[in-house]
Amino acid sequence: MNLRALGTLLYIIYFLIVTFPQRLRLKKEQETNPEKCHEIATAQIKKALRNIMKIAGIRVETDGLDNIPEEACLYVGNHCSYFDIVTTGAVIPSGAGYVAKDSLKKIPGLSQWMLLFHCLFLNRRDIKEGMKTILTGAEYLKQGYSMFIFPEGTRHPEGSLGEFKGGSLKMAQKANAPIVPVAISGSSAIYEVNKGLRIKPGTVKISFGTPFRISDLSREEKKLAPEYTKKLIEEMLEQQKS
């Protein structure tokens, strides 16, 4: 473990400890003023993510921020690093709740913060529970909270996108919310490709594509909506190389 990795870990632990009282206050406020609670939690998390980026030495280059709609939307991105969440969460102007693996729900402090800004924990082993999660996500979109999902379900090496799961876009379809394709490159070089728990400084490129609604697609495109979105992201990743 190098100094940047150690510094990142220590900062996360410090943040979770010192914000314990704030989490308790926000949990109470969530019952009476959920919108205000979401706003405060999102601002606090964005600040923490930016601090993590500084410690890790991460620089972000963004493209297409003007494509982000004012209404709640579903961000759909490729996934190659833990730092995909750190970087996208830091740069999306109004923030977004992430669809995360259910094992993260067991981490004290972190899971409470995630719930405060409308993250969801997806049980991939239980189809019935997974569908309940998707329906909750659709309700969040209807209520005005943007969501972010990685349809591959797990991290894949850069340059090779995995299968986009069939139900990954269902929440946007049920809420008739716009989908924003997101292409991310350079993030795995920060941590995943390094040996021995080492974080190295680097640049992450994040592109936000033109939003679309599944209801506006052709009949054939609707049937293959995940593949349609995957193709858009692949094209965006190719553009990032030029």
Helix content: 40-55%
Number of helical segments with 4 or more residues: 9
Shape: globular
Kindly name the structural category: alpha/beta
The largest pleated sheet is described as: 7 strands, mixed
Spatial order of the strands forming the largest sheet = 1-7-6-2-5-3-4
What is the CA–CA distance across the termini? 34 Å
Strand-residue proportion: 5-15%
Estimate the mean pLDDT confidence: 93
Radius of gyration using CA atoms only: 17 Å
Number of strands: 7
SSE string, helix = H, strand = E? Answer: HHHEEHEHEHEHEEHH
Uncertain residue ranges: none
Description:
The chain is an alpha/beta fold. Helices cover 46% and strands 14% of the residues. It is built from nine helices and seven strands. The protein has helices at residues 3-18, 20-32, 34-56, 83-91, 110-116, 127-142, 170-175, 219-223, 225-241; strands at residues 58-63, 74-77, 97-101, 120-122, 147-149, 179-185, 202-208. Strands 1-7-6-2-5-3-4 form a seven-stranded mixed sheet, sandwiched between helices. The radius of gyration is 17 Å and the shape is globular. The model has no long low-confidence stretch (mean pLDDT 93).
